[in-house]
Write a structure and sequence with these properties.
CATH architecture of the largest domain: Alpha-Beta Barrel
Strand order of the largest sheet: 7-1-2-8-9-10-11-12-13
Low-confidence stretches: 1-12, 14-24, 278-295
Shape: globular
Order of helices and strands: HEEEHEEHEEHEHEHEHHEHEHHE
CATH topology of the largest domain: TIM Barrel
Oligomer: single chain
Distance between the termini: 99 Å
Strand content: 15-25%
Number of strands: 13
CATH class of the largest domain: Alpha Beta
Length: 362
C-alpha cells in the first residue's frame, strides 16, 4: 500500500512539473502542394481571353467531343506520341522500350498502347526527337512560379488562362493554383465546358476574373450522342453564373455537321438572351437592347469559333483516326450568316478564326 502511495505521489509530481513547464509550440508542418498533370504551357496567347496571356493546359476531360483540337489532353495520364516526319528509322526506341511495346513495319513504328507506361525511355533515346511524352506532373507551387515568370508582359488586360482538357477534372490542383496566382496579383481566366457539379466552379470564383464558357450544342439528345453526356448540367451552371453576375465569355465552336446549323445557333442565342430570368422565349431580334424586352444578365462576349484543322497531325501522332480529317474550313458566307443570327439575340456577337472565302479545302 505504502509503495502504491509513493508511486502515486511521484506520478503526481511529474504531472504537476509537466503542467508548470512552459510548452513550446510545435512547428507547423507545411502541407505539400498538390500536383497538376499538365499538357503544355503556351505563352503570348491572344486567343484565350483578353490581352496577352499564358495558357496552361490541364490533362483530362469528361466529355468526348469528336472534333477535339487537343486529343492528347483527353486522358489525364501522360501519353506517348510519334511524329513520322522526324523519324530516321534507326530502331533505337524499339530496343530501348522496357515493356517491349514498340514494333516496326512498312509504315514506321507502332506502339502497343496496352503495354505502354509512358515512362519516357523511348523519347529520351530517340535521336531524331520523333517521340514525345505528352503530359507531366508538376507541383502546383512550381507551376505557379513558372507562370509568374511572364508577369511583366501581361500588361493591363492580360494574365493566365487555365484550359484543358477540362480544368475541373483536376479541381484540387486548379483551385490551389488560382489561389497562388491571385495572391500574386495575376488576372485569371478559366476555359471550361461546365459539365460538373457547380460547387467545383463556385469554390474558384473568388480567384477568377473571367470564365470562358463553352455552349456547343443546345439540343440535349444531340449533345449526348456526340459528346457523351447531356447538357442539362452545363445549361444550369451557366444560369447560375449569370445569376451571380460573373464575367463570362461564351464560345461556340462551329463544327461542320455538328454545331453549325442555323437552328442550333438560334437556340443557343435564345438561351443566352433569357438566362437569368424567368419567362417565355425571346423572339429573334429582341435582345437585351431591344425596346420592350425585359432586362437580362448577359455575357460580356459571344464568339463563334471557326473550325480549323491544325490538330490533324496530333491524331496521327496518337495512332487515332479523326472524323474531321477530310472536312474543309468553315465558309465565310456561312459563318457570317450564323453570326447575324447570333446577333439577333446577342448584339455584338462575333466570329473568330480563319475561314474559306469560297469553299473549305481539306
Amino acid at each position: 500500500m505504502a509503495g502504491s502511495e509513493a508511486l502515486f505521489r511521484e506520478t503526481s509530481q511529474k504531472e504537476m512539473t509537466q503542467k508548470e513547464m512552459p510548452q513550446k509550440e510545435m512547428p507547423q508542418k507545411e502541407m505539400p502542394h498538390p500536383e497538376a498533370v499538365i499538357l503544355d504551357i503556351q505563352r503570348m496567347s491572344t486567343e484565350d481571353g483578353p490581352g496577352l496571356r499564358t495558357t496552361v493546359f490541364f490533362k483530362g476531360c469528361n466529355l468526348s467531343c469528336p472534333w477535339c483540337h487537343n486529343p492528347e489532353s483527353i486522358d489525364k495520364k501522360p501519353v506517348v506520341t510519334w511524329f513520322p516526319r522526324r523519324c530516321i528509322g534507326c530502331g533505337i526506341c524499339r530496343k530501348a522500350c522496357p515493356q517491349k511495346g514498340i514494333s516496326s513495319g512498312e509504315e514506321g513504328i507502332r506502339f502497343n498502347r496496352s503495354l505502354c507506361l509512358a515512362c519516357g525511355t523511348c523519347a529520351e533515346e530517340c535521336p531524331g526527337g520523333a517521340i514525345e511524352i505528352k503530359g507531366r506532373n508538376i507541383p502546383v507551387d512550381k507551376l505557379a512560379a513558372e507562370l509568374l515568370k511572364d508577369f511583366f508582359y501581361f500588361g493591363k488586360d492580360g494574365g493566365v488562362t487555365l484550359s484543358g482538357g477540362e480544368v475541373m477534372v483536376q479541381h484540387e490542383a486548379a483551385l490551389e493554383l488560382t489561389r497562388l496566382l491571385k495572391a500574386a496579383g495575376i488576372n485569371i481566366a478559366i476555359d471550361t465546358a461546365g459539365c460538373y457539379d457547380f460547387s467545383l466552379l463556385e469554390a474558384m470564383l473568388p480567384y477568377i476574373d473571367l470564365v470562358l464558357y463553352d455552349l456547343k450544342i443546345f439540343d440535349s439528345e444531340a449533345h449526348k450522342r456526340l459528346l457523351g453526356a447531356g447538357n442539362s448540367l452545363i445549361l444550369e451552371n451557366y444560369r447560375r453564373l449569370m445569376d451571380m453576375k460573373v464575367r463570362v465569355w461564351v464560345r461556340t465552336p462551329i463544327i461542320p455537321g455538328a454545331t453549325d446549323s442555323e437552328e442550333n445557333i438560334a437556340a443557343i442565342g435564345n438561351f443566352i438572351a433569357k438566362a437569368g430570368r424567368a419567362g417565355d422565349d425571346i423572339p429573334a431580334g429582341r435582345g437585351e437592347n431591344s425596346p420592350g424586352t425585359p432586362a437580362v444578365n448577359l455575357p460580356e462576349r459571344w464568339e463563334l469559333c471557326a473550325f480549323n484543322k491544325l490538330c490533324r497531325d496530333k491524331y496521327d501522332a496518337l495512332d487515332r483516326d479523326w472524323a474531321y480529317k477530310d472536312a474543309g474550313l468553315t465558309e465565310k458566307t456561312h459563318i457570317e450568316k450564323l453570326t447575324m443570327i447570333a446577333a439577333r439575340y446577342f448584339p455584338g456577337a462575333v466570329y473568330t478564326g480563319a475561314v474559306a472565302e469560297t469553299g473549305g479545302e481539306p
